[in-house]
Write a structure and sequence with these properties.
Blueprint: H1 17-33, H2 35-44, H3 49-57, H4 60-65, H5 81-94, H6 96-113, H7 118-129, E1 133-137, E2 153-156, E3 162-172, E4 177-186, E5 193-198, E6 205-210, E7 218-228, E8 233-236, H8 238-252, H9 255-275, E9 278-279, E10 282-283, H10 288-316, H11 325-351, H12 361-368, H13 379-386, H14 390-395, H15 433-437, H16 443-462, H17 466-469, H18 472-498, H19 516-522, H20 557-564, H21 569-573, E11 596-598, H22 602-605, E12 611-613, E13 616-617, H23 623-632, E14 641-644, E15 655-657, E16 669-675, H24 677-680, E17 692-698, E18 715-719, E19 724-726, E20 729-736, E21 739-744, E22 748-752
Parallel strand pairs: 1-4, 2-4, 13-14
Antiparallel strand pairs: 2-3, 3-7, 4-5, 5-8, 6-7, 9-10, 11-17, 12-15, 16-17, 18-22, 19-20, 20-21
Length: 754
């Protein structure tokens, strides 16, 4: 399995020549286009005419999206979910807009291939051969994708004919779609749902506007007495209802690969930038918090790809008796997309302002990455959906045959006959427990297994009642916890199929039980030897990157890829963060927070006994010197000679030494006081803390101190701060003895010299 997509060294999972040719031609198109043109088109919000012409000339959508029965004998034509997922990832690697054109074409074709209208199917196949794109006309402005509230109508206009009226909103490709699969209701007394096709060229089709400001054309269009005959009517009644929901099932599965593609390109760009910068005499990729972020992002990316690959097997193996994909599909939609957002957050914390520069892919990805989690149902909708499966998943496992990897050249025709979109609570699953039990030697997996057992016990003994089911503050977190179990299960299954070593590769091996696999599952750190990162790498050494120029005078994607594919990445990331040197960091002179520490190692931060150094600076002598030190805001170095009191803050300077000391001078309780904003200006993401924090040390009582250590008595003094605005941040002015200073606005305990 390829851990990260490398277009210039593409290694497709697909064996046939036709599929490889599609991928290689697409890579060549974008590489010839060049990064300069990509970013310029994005910034100008230019419609991707060149891409649409390319896929028409090479008949790429025809090969990817035409079932064999309608392929006219073309051996490369089939609907292959694995191939479509790989292509989605590749397109998004170069830009989410190109993927979106592919995605809404898939959605537009869904109701057609699911229908019994053979004339419409043949017409769709011919349009695909001609290079057409398609659209899915479901949403309406007032109701979004609420099918129940559909207002578009078909009124009878003679035998077997209708006239369509209504307005559709947020319809991708609606500006050039040869067939727009549109949902309406028949007003003949039955009020049946109906799918029919419309063409953007027809005079009764009014293209109103592009509703977004982006490269894509997301249309608002109106139908004015649009004539519908038997050849245009795709389905009616329950069949139309099922087609709407089942089409969303098909399209939803391509959203995870798109998020992966965006995150992969951003990863390459970020690590290339960091590896070529030296700050404060240190290469950026050698900085502990940077190494942590890259390792965290890498592990999340690997987990995303493992899950998506395994979920593809279940999707392609689906049948009337095996519908497990209906759980794994929305889990992919919600977990993979959110993990991709977190990867971008981690990388952005490293490259900072570089992520805004208009000539970078990262600036495109940072804008686009928030989109996939909102498409084909929000995260909240998908969380509520998967909760329907919890009972059978945990308490009613079935004996089902193992699902092997599915990478053959079959046509995935079952997705066009999924059947009624109901009965989700009756779907059975194989036992999840063996996947976790088989990896229980991994520390993180073992911990996760204990958490799963407690979660299952909660469901068994105090499961949600009807009132709690309707309360999103209870039901959404419950569904989120369930999704993590499913996500972890398929990651472990795919890791086993790929034969992944649960120890870190190379460099003398690692300690079993703390490898990259276990770390990746729970977002922890890998320990041990060297993690095998393949060829995906960062160019070591500083200096300017050199390479060819594209047709527009900018640096070509090919030359940029040279940095991406250098084998130097393992050297940048191979040492586990647990082995990286910890160091105390001094806040800049503008900071008024006193003790700070590198917070990358949560296990060290939470250790019961922490070694302390008690460096001191002499207090300024006299009022003049004191006021000058306060106004200047400059504290002397932390580990100095005689006094620990900062002339700028009056707080004792205590340095936590996370390693290197064999004994502790005194045990102290640690309280996080505030992020060190002047240093990093970070905005923590879900469950994360900034890389550097200000901390306040609270001295325990004498009886609670560690016996046998010599230490200087420290007196605690409580004081209350009243918040007021100062320099656009919450702060307060407080008097501490004879020294007056500005400190964080909170109620806390601090230390003063006696």
């Amino acid at each position: 399995m390829n851990f990260l997509l490398q277009p210039k060294k593409l290694k497709s999972l697909l064996a046939d020549d036709g599929s490889r040719a599609i991928m290689e031609k697409t890579v060549a198109f974008f590489e010839n286009m060049g990064k300069t043109r990509l970013t310029e088109d994005f910034n100008k919000k230019a419609w991707y005419r060149g891409f649409v012409d390319f896929i028409a000339a090479e008949r790429i959508f025809s090969k990817l999206l035409t079932p064999r029965a309608y392929a006219g004998g073309d051996p490369d034509c089939r609907w292959d979910t694995a191939r479509n997922s790989e292509y989605s990832e590749l397109l998004a690697f170069y830009g989410l807009g190109y993927w979106y054109c592919f995605q809404v074409t898939i959605l537009g074709l869904g109701p057609i291939w699911m229908s019994a209208n053979e004339a419409a199917k043949r017409r769709a196949a011919e349009f695909l051969r001609q290079g057409a794109i398609f659209a899915f006309g479901l949403s309406e402005r007032a109701h979004g994708a609420d099918i129940y509230a559909t207002e578009t109508t078909l009124t009878p206009a003679g035998e077997g004919a209708w006239k369509a009226n209504g307005e559709k909103y947020y319809i991708g490709n609606g500006n050039e779609a040869e067939m727009v699969s549109t949902l309406g209701r028949i007003k003949d007394g039955s009020d049946d749902y109906a799918f029919f096709v419309a063409n953007y060229r027809h005079k009764a089709y009014e293209l109103k506007t592009n509703v977004i400001s982006h490269q894509e054309y997301v249309a608002s269009f109106a139908l004015h007495d649009y004539p519908i005959g038997a050849d245009e009517l795709l389905s009616r009644g329950p069949a139309a209802w099922d087609a709407a929901l089942n089409t969303v099932n098909v399209g939803k599965f391509n959203i995870g690969p798109a998020s992966i593609g965006v995150a992969e390109h951003c990863f390459y760009e970020a690590i290339t930038h960091a590896a070529n910068r030296v700050l404060y005499g240190m290469r950026v990729t050698d900085m502990p918090h940077v190494r942590k972020n890259f390792m965290d992002a890498w592990l999340r990316l690997v987990g995303m790809k493992l899950y998506q690959r395994r979920a593809t097997d279940y999707f392609r193996s689906a049948s009337e008796t095996d519908r497990r994909y209906l759980l794994y599909n929305p889990t992919s939609k919600m977990k993979v997309t959110l993990q991709a957002e977190e990867v971008i957050n981690l990388l952005w914390d490293v490259i900072a302002a570089k992520g805004f520069e208009k000539d970078t892919y990262f600036s495109m990805g940072a804008v686009d990455i928030r989109g996939p989690s909102k498409l084909e149902g929000t995260v909240h909708v998908n969380v509520q959906l998967i909760r329907k499966f919890m009972q059978n998943y945990f308490f009613n496992p079935a004996e089902l045959p193992p699902v092997p990897p599915v990478l053959d050249e079959r046509d995935d025709v079952f997705i066009f006959r999924q059947g009624p979109a109901k009965g989700l609570g009756a779907i059975r699953f194989h036992d999840y427990a063996p996947a976790f039990a088989g990896n229980a030697h991994l520390t993180n997996v073992a911990a996760f297994g204990r958490q799963i057992a407690l979660f299952k016990e909660l469901l068994a003994q105090a499961g949600p009642d009807k009132q709690q089911d309707m309360d999103p503050s209870f039901s959404l977190p419950l569904g989120e916890m369930f999704s993590i179990v499913v996500y972890g299960q398929l990651i472990l299954e795919q890791a086993g199929l790929d034969g992944l070593d649960d120890r870190r590769r190379g460099g003398g091996g690692g300690r079993r039980g703390s490898g990259a696999l276990g770390a990746g599952l729970l977002g922890g750190r890998a320990r041990g030897g060297r993690l095998g990162l393949g060829d995906a790498g960062a160019k070591g050494g500083g200096g300017e990157q050199r390479g060819g120029k594209d047709a527009h005078g900018g640096e070509s994607l090919e030359s940029k890829q040279k940095a991406y594919h250098s084998p130097a990445l393992p050297a940048a990331l191979s040492t586990a963060y647990a082995a990286a040197p910890r160091q105390t960091q001094r806040p800049p002179s503008t900071s008024r927070h006193a003790p700070v520490t590198n917070a990358a190692s949560s296990d060290a931060k939470n250790t019961a006994a922490v070694a302390m150094s008690d460096g001191r600076d002499s207090l300024p002598s006299g009022i003049e010197a004191t006021n000058f030190a306060r106004v200047a805001g400059v504290s002397s170095p932390m580990n100095c000679a005689s006094s620990a009191v900062s002339p700028a803050t009056g707080l004792i300077t205590l340095t936590r030494m996370l390693c290197g000391a064999s004994s502790a001078a005194i045990e102290r309780d640690v309280t996080i006081a505030a992020p060190l904003l002047p240093l990093y200006q970070v905005s923590p993401g879900r469950g994360r803390t900034p890389a550097v924090e200000a901390i306040v040390m609270k001295t325990p009582s004498r009886l609670a101190r560690k016996c046998g250590t010599a230490c200087r008595a420290v007196r605690n003094r409580l004081f209350t701060l009243t918040a007021k605005m100062r320099s656009n941040s919450d702060s307060a002015t407080s008097s501490i003895g004879w020294l007056r200073c500005v400190v964080p606005a909170l109620l806390t305990t601090t230390c003063r010299s006696p």
